């Protein structure tokens, strides 16, 4: 069942800014990754999903309700974590939590206490004096405190240290097991790769690619790392491998190289027979990288996350 649906959504702010003809669906019980650098249009799309802004074209529904017309109804059972956290600085963390519990009409604080313990939130002090990481933890707790069925998370681990980032990833996995539907916007490859079933890549307000991660793994060309025993065997391997259809040598370095081959059984069988005939020291598959797939659409190198 589709819980979040965007169909031909456009909001043009001029000068190439905005989102343009965006379409994707988030199914019940899945985590959907919205991947792109800052300024790509992720937050703009999320603001429209939340009903904070009105579309120019298209339609967005959350649990089959129009996101603009039914924003208040939708938000009763939706958890939202904004990319930029703005909290009332005159309150303590505990006061803010109580205020949000009243607004959410949460009577039992058992779940909230579990979240506070899990994320090691110290809510006793004034929000104004909290670190960025502690403010993010406070926002996470209040987003999940009413145990919503649908969650919209915009750059959720921004400001968290690496240990807490991993804890958040583990938490999202558990929420998925409980049947929660989660839209997760991020520019961090490891976060998206570790949690998401479906992924959309956005660039300059346009969707460049939408895919199921497991299906992409089956369809993606295989990459192998090969180490030859000596220079003579290396030369012979290179010459023979280049004769195999859909096989391309990359990253050649002395006696080592990587080869990329179309995932066709006949090609792989031909490659294995060739390697069996010539002595080699190692032959290992290079795991699929979400980052490499992403960089097909972005012409610059990154190191684990996007600028």
Short characterization:
The chain is α/β, with parallel strands linked by helices. It is built from eleven helices and 14 strands.
Query: How much helicity do the residues have?
Result: 25-40%
As a percent range, the share of strand residues is 25-35%
| Number of helices, where a helix is a run of at least 4 consecutive DSSP H or I residues | 11
Measured distance between first and last alpha carbons:
35 Å
Rounded to the nearest angstrom, the radius of gyration is: 24 Å
Give your account of this protein's structure.
The chain is of the alpha/beta class. It folds into 2 domains: 2-210, P-loop containing nucleotide triphosphate hydrolases (Rossmann fold); 221-287, Alpha-Beta Plaits (2-Layer Sandwich), CATH 3.30.70.920. Helix content is 35%, strand content 30%. It is built from 11 helices and 14 strands. The protein has helices at residues 42-49, 71-75, 93-104, 110-118, 132-144, 162-177, 189-195, 213-219, 231-241, 265-277, 290-294, and strands spanning 2-14, 17-27, 31-35, 57-62, 65-66, 78-81, 150-154, 181-186, 198-203, 206-212, 222-228, 247-253, 256-261, 280-285. Strands 6-7-8-3-9-10 form a 6-stranded mixed beta sheet, sandwiched between helices. Strands 2-1-4-5 form a 4-stranded antiparallel beta sheet, with helices on one face. A hairpin with a 2-residue loop joins strand 12 (247-253) and strand 13. It is elongated and about 75 Å long. The protein starts with a strand and ends in a 13-residue tail after the last helix. The mean pLDDT is 89.
Give short descriptive properties of this protein.
2 domains; 35% helix; alpha/beta; 11 helices; 307 residues; Alpha-Beta Plaits; 6-stranded mixed sheet; Rossmann fold; 30% strand; elongated; 4-stranded antiparallel sheet
């Amino acid at each position: 069942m589709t819980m979040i649906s965007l169909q031909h959504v456009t909001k043009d702010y001029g000068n190439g800014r905005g989102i343009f003809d965006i379409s994707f669906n988030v199914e019940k019980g899945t985590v959907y990754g919205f991947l792109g650098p800052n300024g790509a249009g992720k937050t703009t799309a999320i603001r429209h999903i939340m009903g904070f802004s009105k579309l120019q074209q298209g339609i967005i529904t959350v649990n089959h309700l129009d996101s603009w017309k039914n924003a208040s109804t939708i938000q009763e059972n939706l958890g939202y974590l904004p990319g930029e956290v703005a909290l009332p600085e005159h309150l303590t963390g505990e006061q803010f939590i109580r205020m949000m519990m009243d607004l959410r009409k949460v009577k039992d604080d058992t779940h909230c206490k579990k979240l506070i313990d899990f994320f090691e939130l110290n809510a006793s002090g004034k929000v104004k004096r909290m670190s960025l990481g502690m403010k993010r933890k406070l926002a996470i707790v209040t987003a999940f405190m009413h145990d919503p069925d649908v969650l919209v998370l915009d750059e959720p681990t921004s400001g968290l240290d690496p240990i807490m980032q991993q804890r958040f990833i583990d938490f999202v996995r558990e929420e998925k097991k409980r049947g929660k539907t989660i839209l997760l916007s991020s520019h961090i490859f490891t976060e998206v790769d570790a949690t998401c079933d479906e992924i959309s890549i956005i660039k300059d307000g346009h969707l460049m690619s939408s895919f199921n991660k497991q299906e992409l793994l089956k369809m993606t060309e295989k990459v192998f790392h090969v180490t030859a025993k000596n220079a003579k065997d290396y030369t012979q391997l290179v010459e023979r491998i280049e004769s195999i259809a859909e096989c391309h040598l990359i990253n050649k370095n002395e006696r080592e190289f990587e080869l990329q081959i179309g995932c066709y059984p006949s090609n792989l069988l031909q490659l294995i027979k060739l390697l069996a005939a010539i002595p080699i020291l190692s032959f290992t598959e290079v795991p699929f990288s979400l980052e490499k797939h992403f960089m097909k659409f972005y012409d610059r190198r990154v190191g684990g996350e996007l600028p």
